[in-house]
Amino acid sequence: MGVSDLETRPSEQRLAGPPAGGPEELLLTARRVYLGKTTEVARLLPDRQVRMIGAWCFLDHYGPEDLGDAPGMRVWAHPHTGLQTVSWLLEGEIEHRDSLGSLARVRPGELHVMTAGAGIVHSELSPPDRPPTMHGLQLWVALPEAARHGRPHFDTVTDLPRLTREGLRGQVLLGEVDGVRSPAPAYSPLCAADLELVAGADVEITLDPAFEHGVVVVAGEATAAGTSGGVDQLVYLGTGRSRLRLRSATGARVMLLGGEPFPEEIVLWWNFIGRSHAEVAGFRDAWERREARFPPVVERGERVMEAPPLPTVPLKARPSRRVAR
Description:
Elements lengths: L12 E3 L7 E7 L1 E5 L3 E7 L10 E11 L7 E7 L2 E9 L2 E5 L4 E4 L4 E5 L4 E6 L7 E10 L10 E5 L4 E4 L2 E7 L1 E2 L2 E2 L8 E8 L3 E6 L5 E9 L1 E3 L2 E3 L3 E6 L4 E6 L3 E8 L6 E4 L2 E3 L2 H12 L37
Antiparallel strand pairs: 1-26, 2-23, 3-4, 4-5, 5-12, 6-11, 7-10, 7-12, 8-9, 8-11, 10-13, 14-15, 15-18, 16-17, 18-25, 19-24, 20-23, 20-25, 21-22, 21-24, 26-27
């Protein structure tokens, strides 16, 4: 499962992770973005100041949303290239289908990673028998050059390893955190962990100092290193840290992200990642033509999302470092 970027006027961005520059503490606040006409999410990456954390290039936090009599998620068939979608539900249930023939129920505590490679098409729909609340995180990982033209695949990991320390419990989604390693597939050095801090928690975990890291608060309030954040805020920590102190007076749930600074510039537009404006425009054209790169999820007559118009001006390079305030 991977929620599409449904913005009707998506900006075109040339992105690169900030180069290694030592420890930092920068507090970022999500911007509110509508997916379609009804669903509002908190978008934390890419940000004006920090565009990537390692290979992590896109992060939305949605919910908790009381669905009531609403239809829930309705993301029709749409394409992806050059990325992995990493889907993590905290509450609710979503049905994933893709052009490989995969059919999966996405549930809390189970990791679903869709590797688009050269091209894949998928849809995400709330099933009729869904729970009443939907709450989750949608993340994208940029694939490096060596992997981005590969065959697509879909992986589900239901037995993620537990990370338990005094005052902290969680699961490691990708990579390794504090000596606990996930079996989920990854194509560049990175990590992710969903961590719950009990009230009064004050704990330290080990980090890879070659990675840059970020801590996203999804519930409660927490302090990472010396910076406190609330829901829909991200504490960016830079590189060069071998340990991280996490604290929470009242309890919190956070997502820890990390990775080696991504060495390649990417162009992220709508649901595509490429390396140039022309390449992304080619992906869009291939989707509009329904070329073989993008097979149907079920059949060619299925309901799909059409790509928005490309910008009227060519892509202009963005600086690789974050913009200073």
